Amino acid sequence: MKKLRNLKEISDGRLYDIKDMVKADAGDCYGCSSCCYGVGDLVELNPFDIYQMTSCLKLSFDELIGEKIELRLSDKIYLPYLKMYGDLEKCSFLNEEERCSIHSHRPNICRLFPLGRVYEKDDFKYFLQVGACIKPNLGKVKVKKWIGIANYNENKRFILAWYEIVKALAFRLKFVHDNQELHEINKYFVDSFYRIEIKDGEDFYSRFFNILPETKNRLGII
């Protein structure tokens, strides 16, 4: 989540929409996996990321914890992040050929790179992180094609809702100083959103928005 006043330092100074062309295409990377090292602090995973991973690997959220992902405390909220290994901090999902083993189900932050998002009111735009990708002469590609996410409108609605949830909960927890209460709030937060159960006739998005009102109420956020 980058603030507009910082964008000039890391971007080309432009904001892009989903139909815009942007110089982000690394040409299938050709074996390069530089952006898959040392990013454990950067790749925060949202519930849809976890749903994608568990669906792809046929593993539960709890089976991913420890080996593939780790819970970290951020603004008093426990959130899952990609786990890195070794002195080079290699992503846990890189295979022996240095390719992503869950590429078609990779996290949204990985999917965006070298793009990022900037949030404005009830919307967001994309920006290009200049120099973030080590490949020279990146090609032009439409933002929508580069992201390559199915059901884009539903996904965007979810991303915006999730951004507001995390922001509101971080503000709420500023005023919670009892460790037991913090633990109980975080447990309910993780259980509700990251151990989400998809019922028959539902997809991820419908299930998420079905549980959202009651979950927000119990978390004490608007």
UniProtKB/TrEMBL annotation:
Pfam families: CxxCxxCC (PF03692)
PANTHER family tied to this protein: PUTATIVE-RELATED, YKGJ FAMILY CYSTEINE CLUSTER PROTEIN
Protein name: Uncharacterized protein
Species of the source: Dethiosulfatibacter aminovorans DSM 17477
